[in-house]
Specification:
Shape of chain A: elongated
Oligomer: homodimer
Largest interface: A-B, 33 and 33 residues
Largest sheet of chain A: 2 strands, antiparallel
Strand order of the largest sheet of chain A: 1-2
Number of strands of chain A: 2
Order of helices and strands of chain A: HHHEEHHH
DNA sequence: TCGTCACGATTACGTCTGTAGTCAATAGGG
DNA sequence: CCCTATTGACTACAGACGTAATCGTGACGA
C-alpha cells in the first residue's frame, strides 16, 4: 500500500537514505547539485513524502528532522521487480542476457557475477 | 531524443511490438484485458505516440495501420540502463546481488546465467 | 438518396509532477 | 519590545497522464 515515489521525490529519498534524520535545510544542501532546486522545492517534496507516509518527521525545536519510513532495499526490490515484470516477463536471465548482448557487461562484471553465483550454490 | 513513453503508452507499444502494422481497432482488441480501455482511449494513446514520433501510420483505405518506429530492444535497453543507473550506480553486479539476496533468483536462474556467462567468455 | 456507422481528429478534465512563490508564526538580535 | 530572518504550511501553475466524449467526414446498406 506504499504510495508511488516520483522521480524528484526519489532524489530526496536518496539523501535521507544516506543519512538521517536531517532538517529540510540539510536535505536541500545534500541534494545533487544538477537539480538546482530552491529550498522551497525541497520542502514541497518533503511535504509530499510525509503525506504519502514514506518519511516521518520529529520536532526538534522550531523545526523538524526527517527520516525515511521505508528501507531503501525494499524500494529497490520493488522497482527492480517492476522492471523485470514489465520488460522481461519476470525473469532475471533475459535481463542479464539482454545487457550482455548490448555490451553493457564487462569482463569484470562476468567474473563478479560468476563468483556471486558460485557462493549462492552449495 | 526519443520522447518518454508513459505507462499506458507502453501497453500499446507491447501490442505493436508483438505484431504490426495493426489498425487502431486491432490494437484495442489486443490490449491486455485488465486495462479495460475504451476504443477511444486506445486511439488517444496512438495519437500521442504518433505525435512523439514513436510510431508511424500508413494509410490503408479510410483508416490507418500503425507500426513502431523504435525497436523494443532499444526501449528495453534504455529502461534497464536507467534503473541500473538510478538504483545500482550503473553496475549490473549489485543488481544481480540484490535480487539474489531477496530470494528472487532460482537455482534454474543461476544455472542459466552461468551458461550464458560461459558463452560470453568465449 | 438518406440515415447510420466506422474512423480519425479535437476537446475535455481530473490527477500527478516539477518547480516555486507567498503567508503566518516564531525566535533571536539590537 | 520591535524588526527581521528562518521555517513549515499553503497556494500556484504549467505540462504530462489516464481516460474518455464528441465532432466531422466519408462509406455503405436500404
Amino acid at each position: 500500500m506504499t504510495e508511488r515515489i516520483s522521480d524528484a521525490e526519489h532524489a530526496v529519498m536518496e539523501v535521507l537514505w544516506d543519512k538521517s534524520p536531517l532538517t529540510a535545510q540539510e536535505v536541500a544542501e545534500r541534494v545533487p547539485a544538477e537539480r538546482e532546486w530552491s529550498a522551497n522545492t525541497v520542502k514541497t517534496l518533503l511535504g509530499r513524502l510525509l503525506a504519502k507516509n514514506i518519511i516521518a518527521h520529529e520536532e526538534e525545536g522550531r523545526r523538524y528532522r526527517y527520516r525515511p519510513l521505508v528501507a531503501r532495499a525494499d524500494y529497490v526490490a520493488g522497482e527492480s521487480r517492476k522492471l523485470m515484470d514489465r520488460l522481461f516477463g519476470g525473469r532475471l536471465t533475459p535481463l542479464v542476457a539482454h545487457l550482455a548482448e548490448r555490451d553493457q557487461i564487462t569482463d569484470q562484471d562476468i567474473a563478479e557475477i560468476e563468483a556471486l553465483l558460485k557462493d549462492l550454490k552449495s
